[in-house]
Amino acid sequence: MLVEAAPPMVAGDEFNPLVSAQARFDEAAARLGIDEGLQKVLRTPSREVIVHIPVQLDDGRLEVFTGYRVQHSIARGPAKGGIRYGPDVTLDEVRALASWMTWKCAVTNVPFGGAKGGIICDPALLSPAELEKITRRYTAELYDFIGPEIDVPAPDVNTNEQIMAWIMDTYSMHSRHTQTAVVTGKPIDLGGSRGRIEATGRGCMVVTEQALRKLGISRSDTRVVIQGFGNVGGMAARLMARSGFKIISIIEYDGAVYNRKGLDILALTRHRKETGSILGFPGGENMDREEALFLETDVLMPAAKEDVITSQNADKLRCKILCEGANGPTTHYADPILADKGVFIVPDILANAGGVTVSYFEWVQDRQGYFWNEQLVNDRMEEIMINSFNDVVAYAVKHGVHNRTAAYMLALDRVAFAIKLRGIYA
After folding, report:
1. I want to staple 406 with a disulfide (CB 3.0 to 4.6 A). Which of 185, 245, 353, 395 is the partner?
2. Which of 117, 145, 177 lies at the terminal end of a domain, its last residue?
3. Structural domain range at position 171
4. 381 within some domain
């Protein structure tokens, strides 16, 4: 029997993503027997940058926004990670996400380190012109700290290919020549990669298929509940429905829809576009979003936000496979509860790594000046995701641990090995 205990509960810390990230790091490092000094190197970000961005708003007022960029590791290559905009962005959140990017790239053997960025703002209250000003000034402030060989940003929550285009253009203007490889997730006409938009959702589907094969479950009999209907969850739903999965529920911020025979995902997509909500869909019934999370299902895919599955609700889950499409959707206090229930977890640093994998492909294509067709992108991504899944499962068996701990151990092992090979420059 595999036994992995969570650390003692500290009041109020369960919903701090940095606490979860560090707790899982500590567990993996201890099991690997990494010495204390190297643990400090692996745990500590290489660089943290805080910038303050003055912007003249459309009404003439001056406002100052705060932005972050944390580069967690550059041991295995340039730092890599998205930029998110939101009123609730915090430095601890960015630190946690940057570390997860390090481990994600190592799990998939992509030659990047980890980084993450964010700006404290509410995009819903800003005009396109104001967003462009914020983005360009943020890029200019970070000019000395990003670049194709240094740190390669990408889209994240509330950012998109247009914002990546502004970053690429601003960086290129300062460089005095076009630098398409400075960011990924760009429009195809500016050096973006085919298959990038679908990559994270497609990767989730690929590892879900591998989990089903591992557990001996037929795809045609598989019921799926997906939390989130955005780029990751929505794309996963469309691709999985097309491949024969039965998507029985979609959960969004304002509620959920359910159909035990399976939802028509394309029709649901049209309904939301027309009405602004998934609720009231004629092909399903409305449900409370919390109740939908606890439906009996083969696969549960939280693909929206952090800290959805906690010590307070993990015992209510009725899924066989938990495929984490979002970053950090499960707190570390929930892990032993899920282990006791026998849930097969495909952890976030593996499950949603299709996005960074195709971002890597985009970076390679930009540097080559030669672009691949979509089938080649998808085939190469699928190969990496399958190999990474098999690596994690084999590591779990070898060390007698669950998949999440195995994924962290594998990632730490690879990064630590690179640091040892390079040595410490002093």
Report:
1. 395
2. 177
3. 46-177
4. no
